[in-house]
Design goal:
Elements lengths: L6 H7 L3 H33 L22 H6 L3 H14 L3 H15 L6 E2 L3 E2 H28 L3 H9 L4 H31 L11 H12 L3 H31 L4
Antiparallel strand pairs: 1-2
Helix pairs in contact: 2-4, 2-6, 2-8, 2-9, 4-6, 5-6, 6-8, 7-8, 8-10, 9-10
């Protein structure tokens, strides 16, 4: 195998340009679906973490109807199973490597669940693409959860009080008042997560997803050229991430103008 960059080696890569084009499409689709799944999951997790669901609340109330100050029953009465589950999920997903999560989802979960065997766009193997999206979406949801939770908590509590005085329910307040403002605040962070996912999606080639890195491996195996395919992949990732980052920065500046008084 060649160990130095040679211009002549790029001519060996040219016949495999279609693989890189296909890998580019797969990477974009992976990132889009991952952000969508991650955002929906993160919203649920954030609401669970901020919920006030305490099914054992009655254990912390004495015979006179007063809240107990201490003791085991008082502690149990404050237990929120929804917040506990959401917190455990977020901490576990954020504290373990993405590649381990992908292997568990692909070799564990989807070895039990049989997926339909067909190809998207004629070349994307659904049985490998879908587990990759699920694994990345679950991982992204753990990170986006904290972003969404911070965005919701950044909204002034006085607006919630005003909504209650107008007769709005908690759901209506969240839907019509809190979330629209929170989404405006966290949109740049969500967009940046999209850029991160574009780069992290490269790990899915380990389970056979035909992304950009899969194309690199295919070219390496066929031509025995190492560095040049990696340089091509680097250029493709740069062309995806750099303009996207600049576009995000532009919209962030435009959105910040409306907040200035």
């Amino acid at each position: 195998m060649d160990q130095f960059i040679k211009l002549s080696n790029f001519s060996k890569i040219a016949p495999y340009a279609q693989l890189f084009r296909q890998g580019l499409l797969v990477t974009i689709l992976l990132s889009l679906f991952t952000v969508i799944i991650g955002f929906c999951l993160a919203l649920i997790l954030a609401l669970m973490r901020m919920s006030n669901f305490r099914p054992f609340r009655f254990l912390g109330i004495d015979k006179e109807g007063h809240q107990k100050e201490g003791g085991a029953l008082a502690a149990i009465s404050k237990f929120n199973p929804l917040a506990f589950l959401a917190t455990a999920y977020v901490e576990i997903l954020r504290s373990t490597p993405v590649i381990v999560q992908i292997f568990i989802i692909y070799f564990g979960v989807f070895s039990i669940i049989e997926l339909p065997n067909f190809q998207l766009f004629g070349f994307i193997k659904f049985g490998r693409f879908f587990p990759g999206v699920v694994a990345l979406g679950m991982n992204s949801g753990a990170y986006l959860c904290e972003i969404i939770r911070a965005g919701i908590q950044s909204i002034d509590g006085g607006q919630t009080e005003a909504a209650r005085s107008l007769g709005l329910s908690q759901t209506q307040n969240l839907r019509h008042i809190i979330l629209p403002q929170a989404l405006k605040n966290i949109l740049p962070a969500i967009a940046n997560e999209f850029v991160v996912i574009i780069k992290e999606s490269a790990i899915t080639y380990t389970i056979g997803v035909q992304d950009i890195m899969s194309a690199v491996n295919a070219v390496k195996g066929a031509t025995f050229v190492i560095l040049e395919p990696l340089l091509v992949a680097t250029a493709i990732y740069f062309c995806l991430c750099f303009p996207t980052s600049k576009l995000i920065a532009y919209f962030e500046r435009r959105m910040s103008h409306g907040d200035k008084r």
